[in-house]
Protein 1
Amino acid sequence: MSKIITDVVCPFCGTLCDDLEVTVSDDGKKLIDVSNACAIGAMKFLHSQADDRLTKPRMRNEDGSWRDVSYEEAADFSAKMLANSKKPLMYGWSSTNCEAQSVGSTIGELIGAQMDNTATVCHGTTLIAVQDVGVPSCTLGEVKNRADMIIYWGGNPAHAHPRHMSRYSMYPRGFFTAKGHRGRTLVVVDPRDTDSASIADIHLKVEQGRDYELLSALRVAFRGEVLPDVVAGIPKEKIYEVAEKMKKARFGVIFFGMGVTQTLSKNHNIDIAIQVTRDLNEYTKFSIMPMRGHYNVTGSGEVWGWQFGFPFCVDLSRGFARYNPGESSSNDLLVRGEVDSVFVIGSDPGAHFPFGSVKKMNEIPCVCVDPHITPTTVVADLHVPVAFVGVEVGGCAYRMDSVPIETHKVVDAPEGMITDEEFLNMVLERLQKIKGV
Amino acid sequence: MAEKIELNLISGRTIQQGVSMEAGKEKPAYRDACGIIELNAADIKKLGIWQGTNVRVTSLHGTVVVKAIEGLQKVDEGMGWIPMGPWANRVIDPNTYSTGMPTFKGVKVSVTPEPSGKVLSSLEVIEEGLAL
């Protein structure tokens, strides 16, 4: 027999869908099926059941091969590595729960670590812009119930956040949006003909890297001032048309992605996107929201926000929290050779950092806490597989609109496996002994 | 064949990248999803190759062999798309311009046919880079 667990929260992207149904065996040990999830979310649940999954920590031998070790040995190694480092980097934190992030912060304070999360290669520039100019935002519930104009700028939700449009932005029928998608206008700004752009009412095919110009042109158009014939590849007539539609919307939202955060101009692209939103509030109600990637990258920023005052790139090496992206950011620290060990948890910098940074990680001691075999494990000296948060252990996660949602455990982890939080607590205990606190 | 073309490279997520990543980055499906470059049909013609031919992508920052295909989501002539992952990260611009954020989008690259080249797995592409 099997049973169905409802209202399960998906631990893949920042949309944090909370309507999944998961079929598990009667004894709660086997996950059989997942419904309501997108293809990526379903795969995340099902992969936890893979036969070839690692269930024991493994340590690198001198010849490069691996040997199994106990969690105790793994915690000993991690604690010694961190205690012996002058400037350790503790990176990742976005694919784990806030409880584990909090224990990690305690460790970081104790050893004076550089703490950074995946925002550093995702929406870090957004965080800088928000600190510079503020952010008029809202919750996804408000979008569902009120928004009649949806703009995806430099993002492709059909691929990166597959249920975002159906749950919150375009398709749901809300309190003031009873017509669903027929009552909404969708604008996609992207240099490619993406699948999201193909369903848009208006696709502004901006020249790659020229988002700042186009955003600036919109601000000119709002004021009815003169534009050149073409800006960033878009004819001025189109810009005036879109500007007018934005002003006439009842409630609009700009969702933005890596197309603006990762191109040149970086945080300045976001600065001006926020200014566009601010301008529009002279005429109507408009909000702006980053399309956060990892399911709890927002939570990582929240936890550090309340503990240290900064959401990423936190330098604890002086005994108090400093923050200076460009100096205290992972890739800059690695490329300049300023850190002497790396502790990775809930992320895969091996796959998602520029290769020069990965090469530096290989030159220094590296611990990787991750359920999967990843490119990061290629450069790790110790790989600690742990239970999947949101599948085998619950815990708090923050959705992209900063709404905290409690994830659930739906199935037991393989026998003997521990969670991120439990492993971090083991490391913390050992560090407290080493430091005599 | 053997023409060389210059492109503006961008990288990012695809659903195939996401699904295969969650199924295991060490598996061939992840290589098949991300060890590719999506090109405009005109650029494939300029290279004098068929779709599915392996090509070498080179930038100031590195080089990698990937499979050339016509964009599943069309890219314009002069633009290339490699899904985010270790293949793209061999060639993207690591400069953060003091923001912490490497320049993952908008990197000048050259592309040349390399039919005999092998598209490595995600773990191999790291190992190969470390051995250089």
Note: Chain A touches chain B through 65 residues (CB under 8 Å).
Protein 2
Amino acid sequence: MATDVVPRRGVPADRAQLVQWMQEYGVYLGVTVLLLFNVAFTDHFLSTENFRTQAVQVAPVLIVALGMALVIGTEGVDLSVGSVMALSTSLLSLYLGYGPLAALLVALVGGAAVGLANGALVAFVGVQPIVATLALMVGVRGLALVLLPQLEDVHDPTMATLGSGDLVGIPYVVLIAVALALLVAFAVRRTTFGRQLLAVGDSRPAAQLAGLPVRRVLIVVYVCSGVLAAVAGFLATARLSASDPTSLGNLMELSAITAVVVGGTSLSGGRVRIGGTVAGAALIQLLNATLIKHNLSPSWTQIAQAAVIVVAVYAARERGRR
Amino acid sequence: MTVLKVRPPAVTPAARTEAGTNRGERLSALAQQHGALVALVLLAAVASLSFDSFATGDNIENMALSSAFLAIVALGMTFVIITGGIDLSVGSVFVLGGVLAAWGSRHGTLVALLLPLAGCGLIGLVNGVLIARTRMAPFIVTLASMLAARGVMLNITDEGATTYLVDKNSLFIRLGQDELLGIGIPVWITVVLFVAGAVVLRRTRFGQHVYAVGGNEDAAALMGAPVARTKIIVYTLSGLLAGLAGALNAAWLASGVTILGFGMELDAIAAVVIGGTLLTGGLGFISGSLVGVLLLKVIQNIINQVGSLDSAYQQVVSGGFLVLVVIAQTWLGRRQQVI
Amino acid sequence: MSAPAEVLAVRGLTKRFPGVLALDDVTFTVRPGEVHALVGENGAGKSTLIKVLTGVYQPDQGELRYRGEPAVFGTPLRAQQAGISTIYQEVNLVPLMSVARNLYLGREPRTRLGLIDFGRMHREAERVLGDYGVRVDVRQPLRHLGVGAQQMVALARAVSVNARVVIMDEPTSSLEPREVETLFGVIRRLREQDIAVVYVSHRMEELYAVCDTVTVLRDGRHVHTGPLAETDRLTLVSLMLGRPLGEVGRQTTATPAGDHDGEPVLHAEGLTRPHQLRDVSLRIHPGEVLGLGGLLGSGRSETAKAIAGALPVTGGSVTVAGISVRTGSTPAAIRAGISLLPEDRKAEGIVPGLSVRENIALAALPRLSRFGLVHEARVDAVVETFMKRLRIKASSPHQKVGELSGGNQQKVLLARWLAMHPKVLLLDDPTRGIDVGAKAEVQKLIDELAEQGLGVLLISSDVEELISGSDRVVVLKDGAVVAELSGDDVTEDRLMRAIAAPTTAPDDTSPTIPTSPTSAEEAAVHGH
């Protein structure tokens, strides 16, 4: 009803615009400031080697965050991504005997299956996304450990190349992450699926009345998230040349959500900002690197990351309310 | 012309009054409330028949003691979940509590107890204030504080390199290791806390507010329930209890272990939900959570008894349990909504 | 009488929202022991008025007096503590908690130890509820009770926390006849206790059965207040709809009296849904605009939604151009050529965060894509065509729909559906909340579309629009078809008489013949 319009708070226009600008572009500003700070105050920051290291470290987070961005775009969340990475590494290690390609395929199928389960729970049973993916998070981590109870070294030349090799100086891992980011951005912008995803996230009732396949969109989104997490697990395994289902992907859900939210996407759905997500992942990585390079211990980076999350969610919340 | 797919005839309001005594509904309510207990009894019976070493005094004593710490965490979680929230920080807070207790035990028993309570209670309070006042989603706030608690813990322990030991002769250590009437002190403390928790939840106005906030937040506010205050209290309580459990665990192990306990939030949530508390809030039982904890521990014990099975099976089982319970609860909830 | 003459009064009340003047200089007073009906159509301002009275909204101008004193209620809780309680259609209690706990939340009887005394609480709850005709096990969860009994619990709670004014917002919308009787009994008893009742409903029979006074609002303005006994039904309907009685004929020539005897493009038969629709049937021929008349809550929107598959039905069928359509499925209805412009444009129509372009192309996307990739050139062509044809005013196709005016949002929705080449358009109050100029434009568009051979179902709170825009009008009341007007009978006068005619018992499932002498002989009775 027209009369149910909630009166807007009396925020002055210029301040409101500033807030909106910060939500939109704050993450790029943050990345720039951190870069400048490091150039000025951090020794050996401007070296190719340093950038390589940073990029390689951030790649798996970014890949998981891409899937998370899609899920959050539909007003959901996927807490099972870390467990899917662990499952992926277990499956890889088990099936590596059949060749790296077959092992990769099995890992991807595993990720897709978990995504399918998440999606079915959300779309058909009507379970809240956080509850459904939390249950899968517990079970899948256990499954990964059942399949592979302890750390196992991975000796495979192809995977070793993939993990540490490069093309014209750019590590394969980073190239793959960039390619996936472009692919997801393309899917969001150019495909029917992308448009439908945004409509479902923005206004589910309107999407339903417009005859969109709401359930199918939701399921595909969670499957994408599962598959991307499996890819991240594969790459992380290749880089470490070891499968460690106990620790791989721990707290990954948090890092991925942080990258998405810091990138300017509110948790209330209807938007997918791939550029922002990439910048968000970079921001967290740079922040951690900066703290470490200035001899602050990892414990401080965790506390700092927690603060960044709370601030980012709080800032993005304003938009979600509108 | 198509013949319609006729939905089950909607029950008229008049008929629904009698539907309260409907056998199906009664049964599902019973399953909700006592399903875990039945499963626990059956499983324990099967286990005692199958394994000679299951129903022994030592084994039971052991299970009771190792259940105690998870049970205390699950108690706080029960309050949180009944309000419709979730607290993902308890695992890290548990570890932090243990480290703070072990660190503080050098300054006496009182410090060893009060320091973890103060520190962990503060984290819970911050969770509660952020959730109640800024209306941020509980899972994201507590996920962030999980990280923060872990950071603080690592900071105190030189990035996890230092393990603080509890003096073998201190009074504090006796809290974890002594026995009363042949039963460990932590078990007694757990029992007392659960009785107190049940009384608070069932028999006080605060308890009623907890249910009301989770059952229908807007209605609760309209009926005069202090929604924000109730939320702040339950998260603070959850932090306090997780800290206490960590401290007792440190006393039991005689050290502030820095690696055990992460991921405990998932076990606690699983225990609470399996025990019959609705993950969407508004309905739950303190006793159910205790049964849920015992059920998880018995499963773990059986897996250990089998020997050839890895302990990770327990996670698979509780994950599978969770999925089933959540599906069942959602269906139950949907039936409620069709009026 | 020791009580003041008025227990609650507002004078000169004005409330604005961005772009809308929801209440304009409204005066409303309630005396103790009075049952005061508050009526009005969509957008009349009833819900805003109630929200101001109960502290949800603060007035922009005007004075609120309670028990003779100026009052300001910051929150609904404050209002309730002061003694103004609201019983909503959706009962505002906690369904998972027991009946007794709901009744006593926050004021439970306690033992000396400070613990809740359940024995006493249950005994007292049983006694209190017994007075309201509710005899149930008070230990069971509230949700096990029927809606009527739940409302009684809410009412009992309100009265026992010393309510002086009880506001009931469509309390009978999901009650059985027997429960309605009980409710009326309770209302009469409240009256004896000098408690004032504000009764919001669209059901004439109920108003006349239980209310003393009536206040009519229209378009945010106060129109009429007076004893109900002195206001006959027809007058009341004409006051609500804002059309004087006796106005002759329709002033429009926009709808040619073409013959619509051939095969109907839409045939809905016997649509039924508990509490909402009772055996609703209608036909629309190509090129015809069928008006769906009736007051708010008569089942107009539900009929449209049921036809569009957006509301599951327990009985009935829908046929488009001779081919039957699966009910309860939006995609099936859309494939068959049915398009619905929903009543709640903002919540169910537009996708506010997406651009004009994406909104227009949304439903037609599969057709505008190849291998799952959007064919941008084709989208641009479609968007350009419709933006021009419907004269959509936006800074560019890439402007967010949420930023457009109401009229342009509505046109974007129309464009979305026209891009699907529908056979039937269901328009649920398409000009509501739209300024006058845009309104005329949308009305003209509807006529043009019908001329091109579409079947149009038109719902409108604006009687003039309904009468002038429709070739035939089917009149709904309490979820059933009560009359059908065609040819020269399509007049505001006939429509209002059909609406005002008393119905028989509300549980009677057969369509009823209006009993007022004039409409009885003239209104074509819809039946088979």
Note: Chain C touches chain B through 50 residues (CB under 8 Å).
